[in-house]
Each structure stands twice: as structure tokens, then as C-alpha cells.
Design goal:
The complex is a heterodimer of chains A (about 650) and B (about 325). Chain A is mainly alpha-helical and about 650 residues long. Chain A is built from 27 helices and no strands. In chain A, helix 5 packs across helix 12. Chain B is α/β, with parallel strands linked by helices. Chain B contains 13 helices and nine strands. In chain B, helix 2 packs across helix 11. Classes of the chains: A mainly alpha (about 650), B alpha/beta (about 325). Chains A and B meet through helix 3, helix 5, helix 12, helix 15 and helix 16 of A and helix 1, strand 2, helix 3 and helix 7 of B.
Chain lengths: ~650, ~325
Amino acid sequence: MATLTTTAPRVALPGVLKHQAVRKLALLALAAAILVPLADARWSSGTWPHALTVDLTTPLTGASDWIVDNRDSHPLFLYFFGYLSNGVVLSVRAVYLVLLGAGWAGVTAAAALVAWRVAGVRLALGTAAAFAACGLLGMWVPTMQTLALMIVAVLVSVVVGVVLGLAGGLSERLDRGLRPVLDTMQVLPAFAYLLPVVLVFGIGVPAAVLATVVYAAPPMARLTALGLRGADKEVLEAVESLGATARQRLLTARIPLARKELLLGLNQTIMMALSMAVIASVIGAGGLGDRVYQALASVDVGAALAAGIPIVLLAIVLDRVTAAAGHAGDGEPGHGRAAWLYAAAAAVAVALAGRVAGRLDWPDSWTVSIAAPVNDAVDWMTDHLYSGVPVIGGTADWAGHFTTWVLDPLRDGLQVLPWWAVLLLVAAIAWPIGTWRTALTAVLALAATGVLGVWEPSLDTLSQVLAAVAVTLVLGFATGIAAARSDRVERLLRPVLDVFQTMPQFVYLIPVVALFGVGRAPAVAAAVVYALPAVVRITTQGLRQVDPAAMESARSLGATGAQQLRQVQLPLARPALLLAVNQGVVLVLAVVIIGGLVGGGALGYDAVFGLAQGDLATGLVAGAAIVCLGLMLDRVTQPADRRVKKGA
Amino acid sequence: MRLRTTALTAGASALLLLTGCGAADMTKQASPFANAQGARTVTLSVQSWVGAQANVAVAQYLLEHELGYRVDTVQVDEVPAWDALSQGRVDAILEDWGHPDQEARYVDDKKTIAHGGDLGVTGHIGWFVPTYFAKEHPDVTDWKNLNKYASQFRTAESGGKGQLMDGSPSYVTNDKALVQNLKLDYQVVFAGSEAAQITQMRQFAKEKKPFLTYWYAPQWLFEKVPMTEVKLPAYKDGCDAEPDKVACGYPHTPLQKYLNADFSKDGGKAAAFLKRFKWTTEDQNEVSLMIADQKLTPEAAAKKWVDSHASTWKAWLS
């Protein structure tokens, strides 16, 4: 749910930009002319030279064996990691028991009342309906398991994030050190986090919670720091002149002033935690994600959807409620407190009533099975679309053509290029768009994949990402423009985008295989579906925020709709469009990796293989390469003046 | 800065309070969802193929309805499941296809996992072509003739060679080495998950297209897509010892059950029941087919089987 507040800077004059770009490229060409012959003479061209690779298999395998052998005896585990994982297990268990003890009625009532206090009656009804739907779908217990895991993970993430954010918000130096790290953490695919935690904690809930915390804490930290830095100078001066101590200033002025950012941080942390809680089912998180994952094993889209819908509902409810909390003004505190008390009392009363009635578990007779109709629909769709559609051919033919005409040339082209040429290409794209720093980071990140010895699979993954991003941008910009020009389209799109953005990626995997066969094509298709909503949203928002005065003057000069769009809106919305590209790339990479589960091969497959075979050497190297690719892609598409808050 | 240290010390002391003093053994931790509300729970690991789901579904049904346990299931791949089993995060694996390294480490050496007896089903891995294709071209069932048909098995993914489709990365496979050592003009394409592989096979079968795939028995899909095995060079003991040099087919493996060592000792009726749990390939296929093809929930499928096979499972409870 990307919420953006781009400070749209005035676009630099194209002429100047061109000059700068030309200058940079000329410099780059000069450097290349000197360095390439040297590199060629020293290591030969073609694929990544063997002399420059570092084989990590032996140390990594050794480390993994050492950990398994010492897990029950070494003090590091007994007195540090053991406490961590015990703490996680105990807290998750405590929350889970409270949720079960409150019974379905109590939990639903409590959630609805919280929503009512924070966001009003409509959302309260929506919340109650969402929880009831989870029960109706027969998913009450898994939903509670996921919720318990989420509550613990989000609380820890918020604490960690606020601590880091305070440090960054109050100290210049720490902020400079933290920011690049947090920025980078935000662009890494969740899948890459799983292996290291499994290595230390083994399969299970502790690993899942910790992976979730690592994934979800950065947005909280960033936004906390941002909020503290953005506090109104005059207010702070006023507080200071009243003789407040540093701590009083922080508690009474800076933190309350940063309320909006803190709540936005909470919102994003919750969203990211939820998406990670699902992906963590691969390492034994249990709950709803595990149900989705199990349903896929029997190729049962219906059952996967039955577990996917509660996730979507939870996500939408949590998002709306936290967003509403961010927008809400401060009510009268006295009155508010009384209402909170009433709400709490009501929730407790309902929970007790449920206990007395002996109806703690969701009644079995109240469940609706949606699996059969959904599967029939999916079967019908794939039967009719897979092949033999007159004139245009079926989806299977398209997938074949896409693979043969787009993916293969892209991959082979990248792999045939001499290694230094690929690096040069990255530098040539990254430098004119960004700064020399971003360009250098991008080049080094890509070179790191070569050093790790996975140059070829990395380029394979990269080719899939590029193809998917191209498709995503074409579709996304078109849809975004349509939505920006018509309110009705936007209203119709909103729920669709919400669902697509929050549906666990695993749910898409089977339908795309049924439509496109096994291979890289379904991986690309799933990635496009997942990345589209964010691109559409950002495009729409960017176009709508274009200065009304500029639009007005264009209209008064008699420009047609198309002319307005081409000559005024699109140029002025350029920062938003660049951001859309950047987000598209990051999201696509995240799913192309999961595409390893449907025949995408390359790095995604290696990461899955590492998890599945406990072969951490392969998995960790693939994970590290994914991280490098993510870093590279982000820096290449990162405009020099990025000052935006990125959504999940 | 002071704030941070206070937060850290507070966090550390809270952890200490939570866990009590002394050592915290990570290898003795049940799942946080186990034994909730005073129920006795058993946590079973499910592997991603349907046969394993069938074992678990029936075991779960009987544990819940006959012995009064609450059963949690967690889906974990084979090798990580061994690790989870040794840590007590799951109590049992009901179907293992042979992992000698893991067995040496956890059963013989660390003694954290106990052997739980035969499942009663014998597993076999091999290469298969659909029967409709084998009927037209009977000689395809010998690996020596595979190169003749490579062009027919081509797909967009296999890049000019024939496609040999493999499945989930978690499965035991020597196919890459086999293709190389038997000098076959084939490309191994990994579907990446069993779900993807099955979906693709069913699509091919609908169109009566030829395909060559890594597959295994017992498997319910044979009922839906009849397949014929391609003979690979015969398996002899130890011919697959060196992964890169393998040039023989796959063995027939009697599938095994494994229990967490503590659970095996103190697991009471549940452990005794799981040790006695033993059924035939036909039984397993019957349940698998209900789950995967008729799309019954595992619970409903298990109920159906339990209702009609009382004599079989009564023996497991006594």
C-alpha cells in the first residue's frame, strides 16, 4: 500500500541534463578505453573470469555443520541464541493462548472495538466482517496462529525500529551511517532473509519471527528518523525557550509532532510483516501461510485461496485502520479515554459471554467451502485459454513465443557479452540517472555476483527481471493513465489493486503454470501481476498531483486531452514515473525469485534448493547474489534526488 | 545513547525473566502452538507430495478421533524436517525416502532421532513417458533410444534439446549427471515444485503431447495420467555413491518413519500408535487420489478411508 508524498522538484531543463549525461558518458568511455584492454589482457573476455571468483562452498558448509553440531552445547547458543528463540516461542505462545482464550467472539469484538475507536463505525463493521469471514472459511485457528506471530513480530519490529529511528533522528552521524543500510534493506527480496536465520535457529517459529522482524523493522526506523528530523523548528525553539530538558523536549514536542510519520511507519511495518509471515511458511512459520503452501502441494487453488483470503482481509483491515489512525485529529482526550474504557469493557464482556456459552472455537457447522467452485472456475479458464483460442493462439503458445523471442535473446545476449561490457553497460545507465556513488555501487554489486561464482545464473535472473519490468511498465503506465483521467476507473480499480497487492504470491503460482506451462514465462507472469498494483498506484498519484495551474493554462491554450497528457502531465510527473520504475523493479525481483518454484530456474531455484536440501552453501550464495542484484537494480533506477517514502 | 542502553538492558532482563536463569537449550523447543489450552498435541511434519499428506491425514484423524490428541501439521522439506525433528519442533516424519547422511548424524551419532519402523510402502523413482506415447513408439522405453526422440520432447525452455522435466529441488535426483554420463541429448528443466510439475504433466496429457519426466511411485497421478517407465541401466548397490559419476537408475526404497527421540520415549499412546502405523501402497493411493483429484479436504479423505478400513487401523491402536 504505497503511500507517497513525493516532493515534486521542478524538473531540470532537458538541455542541461543532456549536457551532464554526455559529459558523464564521455568520461566513462575514456575510463573504459584505458581499463578494458588491461582487463582483457589480464583475464580474457567472455564470461566472468575464473581467476576472480571466490569459492565459498567449503567454509559455508563447514559453518553450517559446526552450527548443527554445536547447537545444543556451545555457550553462544545456550546463552544467547537460545534465549532469543525461547523468548520468541514464549511470547508467541502467550499471545496465541490469549487469542484462543478470548474465543472467536472475544477476538472479533475486541478488533472491531479497537477499529471503532481509531477509525470509526464503518471500519469497525468491516473489521468484524473480516474476522467473521476468516471463521466462515474454516481458517479460524490458522488465522489466530498467524495473528499471534504477527503481533509479536510487529511489536518487536516497532521497538527495534523506534530505537534505531530515535538514534538516527537525534544524531547526524548515526543517521548517515544507518540510512544506506536501511535503504538497502528495503529493496531486498524477502526470500533472501530466510536462509541465514534458518542456519542459526533451524526451521520453526523463532526463525520465522526473526526473519519477519529483520524485514519489517527498517520502514519504522526510517520514518521515525524522518519524523523527528521534520519537526517544526519554531515549536522546538518555543519549547526550548521554556527551559525544557532534552528528554522533555523529545517526549513532549518532537515525538508528538512526528505522530503522522510514526503511524505511517507502523502501517508499513504491519504490511511488510504480514507479507513476510506468509513467505516464512517455507521455513515452518505455520498458520495461514502454511495452509496456502500445503494447498499448493496438491495443486488446489481453491484451498490456497481459502487461506489467502483471510490474509488479504487482515491486510486490508490493518492497513485501513492504521492509516485512519494516522489521519485522525486529536480527539478530546478525556472523552476518548472514557470511550476506550467502555470499548475494553465491552470486549471483555463479549469474551466472557463466549466462554460461558462454551463457544470458544469457531463452530464447525458455520463454515463455507469455497474450494470446489474456485477450482472449477480455474479449470474452466485454463481449459479455454491454454490452447486453441482461434486467431491469437492460446496462452501456452504465447508463453512459448515470449520465451523464445524475448527471454532467450535477452538471456543469451547478456551471457554472450564480455563481462566487462555488462559492467560498463550498468555504469552507463546508472551514472546519468543518478550520481557517481549510485553508479559505483551498482557496478560493484553486479561484480560481486561474479566474484561469488554465480555470474551466469545472475544474468539469467536479470534477464527475467528486465522482461517482466518491461511488461509491467507498459501495462502499468497505461492503466495508471486511464485511472488518472477518470475517477470512476480509479474507484473500480482500488479494491482490485488492494487484493492483488496483498494476496500471498504463492497463490498465483499454480494458475500461472496452468496457463503458461512450466518455465520462465509463468515466473515472469506472476511477477507482473504482483508488481502492477504499485506501478499503477504511483503513476496515477503522480499524474494527479501535477500542478493544476499548469494544466489549467494548457487547457486555456486549447490543448487536446492527449496533448495535455503528453506535453504537460507526463513531463511534470516524471519523478513519480521514475519512482514507479524503481518500485516495479524491486517488486518484480522479489517475485521472480519465488518463480524458482515454477521453473524460473537461475538464482531463485538455487535459493529454493538451498532451503529444500539444507544445502546452505548453495542457498546462501544465491541469496547473496539476489541481494546484490536487488541493490544493483535499485541503484540503477534510483533518481539522484530520491526523497520519498517507499511503500511495501 | 543512554536511551538505547536502557532499552537494551530492559530487553535483556525481560528475556532473562521470561526464560528463567541458566542455559536455554534450543534443541528442546516445541512449537509455540503445541499443547494449547491443556490439549495434548502432536506435531507432524508434512512433505510437499500428496502421498505424505495422505499418511499425515489418516494419522491425524485417528489421533484426534480415537486417541483424543490435537494435531498440528507443518509443511517442511525433507532435509530441514530432519533438523526440525531433532530439535523437537516436529514429533514425527511419516515417510522418508532415505537420507543416509542425516540418519548417520542424528540417529546414530547425536541420538536425537529414533527410528520408527517401516511405513509399509515401497518407493521408486524413475523416468516416465505417457502411456499413449509409449504405445505408439514402444522402443522409447529403453534409454538407449531416447536420443532418437529428443526432438519430440523439445519445449521452449529446453533450448534445442529434448526436455527431461524434474520436479521439486527437495527431491532425490541424479538426473543432471545421468543425462551427461549416458550422453543423452536432453536438458534437465526443473519445474521447481511438485505442484508445477503435475500441472504441466496434466496439460501435456490433455493435449496428448509427448513428454519425458522424472517421477516416482506410489503416486496418485498414475491413475489420471497413465505413464510407462523408461528403463535406465540397472541399479546396483553403491552405483550412485559418487554424484557426478552416476550412470544407473534409481533403487526401490522401503519408506521409513522417524520420531523425535524424546517423543518416542515419552510420547505415550501417540508415539506407540505412530510406530505401529503401517499400510499398503494401495491404501495410500486411495487417500491421495481423494485429496488431489477429487479435491476432498485431507480430513474428509481420511474419514472416508477410516470408515471403510476399520480392520487395518484397529491393529495400530491395540
